[in-house]
Amino acid sequence: MGADPGTAGAPPADHSDEVAALVDQYRRIPPGNQVRLAKPTSNLFRFRAPTTTGLDVGRLNRVLSIDPDTSTAQVQGMATYESVVAAHLPTGHVPLVIPQLKTITLGGAVAGLGIESSSFRSGLPHESVREMEILTGAGEVVVARPDNEHAELFRGFPNSYGTLGYALRLEVEVEPTRPYVRLRHVRFSTAQECAAAVEEICRDREFEGHRVDFLDGTVLSPSEQYLTVGTYVDEAPRTSDYTGSKIYYRSLRDHQTDFLTVHDYLWRWDTDWFWCSRAFGVQHPAIRALWPRRYRRSDVYRRIVAWDRRAGLSDRLARWRGAAGSEPVIQDVEIPVRRLPEFLEFFHRDIGIEPIWLCPVRLRDPRGWSLYPMDPDELYVNVGFWSAVDTKPGDRPGEYNRAVEDAVGALDGHKSLYSDSFYEPEQFWRLYNRPAYERLKQRYDPDGRLPGLYEKCVGKR
Which residue from 66, 42, 103, 35 is spatially nearest to 452, judged by alpha carbons? Predict the structure, then answer.
């Protein structure tokens, strides 16, 4: 794990050596070759053939130190949240926001988008970062903080997706944790009632007289939606296990109250990739009994999806069902809570994917973040949906994803860029702050060694 996790201070010498080796590797890549990361895992859903030189950052994957006295940790950029949690829990601390999939990296969550059920009180993962050590496109290593000469890079790095540089080390805030989480699953029959409850709970930070530490939701149908209210507790009369035969999202109907260890709560969605494991038959009792527990995890399912995209199996199955083909609709979008019922009405009517994940989020920092310009005064709900829609003859490429993009724009929302996007350049740059991005690109990647944001996130359509 590197340095003693109870010791704070400057990054250890071996980290500095690893950074020096990476810089040397970067500078040896021939000019004119665009650079991308070479790493063993990915949570992006833009499946494209590799055409550029890969930069091996795999060694920068450790928790360097944890300092409970200052409530901070020093973490390398390619450390997965699985390893970050494993290092932190024995100290009784965790980062403020821990995205729900184990192989999301800390650097990836900061350069892209991460979110979880603590986001209504703690914002997005990059908002609890105090300092970033970044290898820029110019091949320089800079330390960006909100109050130094690289402050503009600090505020523009989130949502840059590796087009300005790569996070090598981050200083992040941590908070005390407790052994268990008590869950209450509350059912609502309408989206209006659900949205009103989200607004009230986020405002009061309590529910039925109990403190609320975590809040997310699951929409199973237009008349069945659940908010899951989580509270840290020191003792639990029992704990549930959803890594075996039982499946977490199905428990929402069965248990009004539930208890999980903190570890199992943090990874409650990973075992079945929310509910997406059902596409592989893993939720069928006979198949589940044969599917090894160590392979019930999100990165395994994503590799299967990547294979399916290459093989075109889903398209062939859709045509067998009589459809023209199949369009993956894998997106996370932020919708103002007041407009959530409108979005869900559109989504049920025109897209038809269920279940849907809901996760409230409010920015912590009133200054906002330049490349993902959410309103700091607005309470949003992240709406996540991850499946495919059968297409009809005459549908244009990306028909349903384009409909989602249009609806999000009409409702003053924002869309994460980790998956397929279909924006025209003018529309994209209206949403993602072209002037701020071009200033950063010119300063930190003047020779275009890294791909541009539009090129990387949308590309040629």
Answer: 35
Give how far Cα 134 sits from Cα of 83, 161, 389, 424, Å.
21, 13, 39, 30
> Residue 403 belongs to a domain with what CATH number?
3.30.70.2520
CATH number at residue 71: 3.30.465.10
Separation CA 325–CA 319 (nearest Å): 5
Residues 184 and 227 in one domain: yes
> What is the rounded distance in angstroms from the CA atom of residue 256 to the CA atom of residue 253?
7
Q: Do 138 and 188 sit in the same domain of this protein?
A: no
Same domain? For 37 and 162 the reply is yes
Bridge pairing between strands 35-38 and 356-361: unpaired
Question: How do residues 380-418 score in pLDDT, each as one tens digit?
Answer: 999 999 999 999 999 999 999 999 999 999 999 999 998
- Spatial separation of the C-alpha atoms in residues 74 and 64, rounded to whole Å: 5
Q: What is the residue-wise DSSP string for 261-314?
A: EHHHHHTTTTTTTTTGGGGGTTTSHHHHHHS-GGG-SHHHHHHHHHHHHHHTHH
First-last CA distance in the chain = 43
pLDDT in tens, 426-442: 999 999 999 999 999 99
> Which residues form the domain of 237?
180-268
Q: What is the mean pLDDT of residues 117-137?
A: 97
> 59 vs 236, which has greater pLDDT?
236
Is 38 or 118 the better-scoring residue by pLDDT? 118
Are 239 and 183 in contact by the 8 Å Cβ rule? The answer is no
Q: What is the DSSP letter of 126?
A: G
Residues 173 and 32 in one domain: yes
Structure token pair of residue 420: 């397929």
What are the residues facing 63 on neighbouring strands?
Answer: 75
> Of 152, 153, 133, which Cα lies nearest the Cα of 143?
133
**Do both 173 and 30 map to the same domain?**
yes
